[in-house]
Specification:
heterodimer; A: mainly beta; six-stranded mixed beta sheet; 11 strands; globular; B: mainly beta; four-stranded antiparallel beta sheet; 10 strands
Chain lengths: ~110, ~120
């Protein structure tokens, strides 16, 4: 019940396309859902986050869509660029703990 | 410093040796986490420190792993009698517990290779 399931494991998209990464959870006590971006050799960095009382949040080219009834949330990257190539992790918070998805390796082809 | 600092950045050790990994959190951050990341995989929680409270050690995989933190300063993660399966990147993160949705700030990790 503490798991966060993330898909796909890897994704290749042409420049300008809209990659979509999905996450699903079971625990309804989760109260905060961040996405982190990780480049090779670096630690993850917060990209965007959402609370469960909001259905959508946009920051620049990044959008989180949140479906509370389905217990799913997704990351969309508009007008994707080669510089967006990275590994993306979704997470869900329970108290002080973040429960992490397994990650999606995204490649944006020029 | 401006961010979370971890040292060393790379460590190669022989099986059976002890290693000590260091994390300098962002000044003023009371919460500190250690994670393990195996190649191509997600983040595995190891231990959590919050101020002077007792740490949450529930993620430590065996009694060969231990960690310390004095107050709100530096933390060290020690792995005794290293095994090949300990090879991974060890990530440290800190956050300000004063803000509920304060993000985790990660260091760049220590890449541990056990030969």
């Amino acid at each position: 019940q503490q798991q966060v399931k993330q898909s796909p494991q890897s994704l290749i998209v042409q420049k300008g396309g809209i990659p979509i990464i999905n996450c699903a959870y079971e625990n309804t006590a989760f109260d905060y859902f961040p996405w982190y971006q990780q480049f090779p050799g670096k630690g993850p960095a917060l990209l965007i986050a959402i609370r469960p009382d909001v259905s959508e949040k946009k920051e620049g080219r990044f959008t989180i869509s949140f479906n509370k009834s389905a217990k799913q949330f997704s990351l969309h990257i508009m007008d994707s660029q080669p510089g967006d190539s990275a590994t993306y992790f979704c997470a869900a918070r329970s108290n002080y703990q973040l429960i992490w998805g397994a990650g999606t390796k995204l490649i944006i082809k020029p | 410093g401006a961010g979370v600092s971890q040292s060393p950045s790379n460590k190669v050790t022989e099986k059976g040796k002890d290693v000590e990994l260091r994390c300098d959190p962002i000044s003023g951050h009371t919460a500190l986490y250690w994670y393990r990341q195996r190649l191509g995989q997600g983040l595995e929680f190891l231990i959590y420190f919050q101020g002077n409270s007792a740490p949450d050690k529930s993620g430590l995989p065996s009694d060969r792993f231990s960690a310390e933190r004095t107050g709100e300063s530096v933390s060290t993660l020690t792995i005794q009698r290293t095994q090949q399966e300990d090879s991974a990147v060890y990530l440290c993160a800190s956050s300000s517990a004063q803000r509920r949705n304060s993000p985790l700030h990660f260091g760049n990790g220590t890449r541990l290779t056990v030969t």
